[in-house]
Amino acid sequence: MGWQDEIIRLQDFLEAYYLGQETSLSPVEQALHPAFTYAGPNGETADRETTLEMIREGHDHTAQLRIVTSNHTLLHETPEVIVAGYVERHELSGGDNERLCTVIFVVDQQAPNGVRWLRTHESWIRRSSDEG
To answer: Pairing state of beta strands 32-39 and 115-126?
Structure first.
């Protein structure tokens, strides 16, 4: 199940990046489709470059973070596109956040786990006072 492995791989990398344990954004740059877009839980939207800049700004911004994904669900699949959903939980010192995520992947055998992220949309399930 390459798409599920990709969700876990990228979230594990982002956790390490935000903790300052990783320094290169190369794994994210390889994963995101050139036309990637992001819709955040507060209603903000971003293109690929803006998303990469937001991630860069978060480098080494916290001393405590754990990102866990669960409820991985295949919503739709064609030979070219996979749509999946999952819950993303950020465990922080100030409390936990949970988001319901929907992702559209483009099938690309050259990409990590055979898929490239085309669109991610997040909605709050639960939000603590500490953002992460």
So the answer is: parallel
pLDDT 10s digits, 13-66: 999 999 999 999 999 999 999 999 999 999 999 999 999 999 999 999 998 999
What domain range is 9 assigned to?
A: 2-126
Contact 106, 115 (CB under 8 A): yes
pTM equals 0.92
How far is Cα 50 from Cα 118, in angstroms, rounded to an integer? 14
Kindly write down the DSSP assignment for every residue of 3-35, as one continuous string: HHHHHHHHHHHHHHHHTTS----HHHHHHEEEE
Helix (H) or strand (E) holding 48: helix 48-57
Q: What CATH number is associated with residue 67?
A: 3.10.450.50
Judge whether 131 lies within some domain. Answer: no
The residues with which 95 forms a beta bridge, in sequence order, are: 92
End-to-end CA distance of the chain: 28
